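Input/output pair, single chain:
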Amino acid sequence: TKQPIGNIIDLSESGMMIAANKVVVPDALFQFDLNFPNQYIATNTIRVGAQELWTVTNTRTNQSEIGFRFIDVAQSDRVWIRNWVNEPGSKYA
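Output:
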């Protein structure tokens, strides 16, 4: 639909969790364009295919927190995500 679904709150090379104001169909398949600021990536966008794994409602924010597994992502983009997550200063590095 080219409409934003939410904000990424956790990202790894194998999937992501987002906070969304929308409800999604359980086990549905999606194609996402993940947009990053230009200082992080030359192309600004990584395209991934993802499958919804779980959804919970955060009662504090009244938003859906949705977990996705990446099912289609270019190997070069997967490597970029891994390197970005492991950058110095990352809470995961």
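The CA atoms of residues 31 and 49 lie 4 Å apart. The chain has a mean pLDDT of 86.
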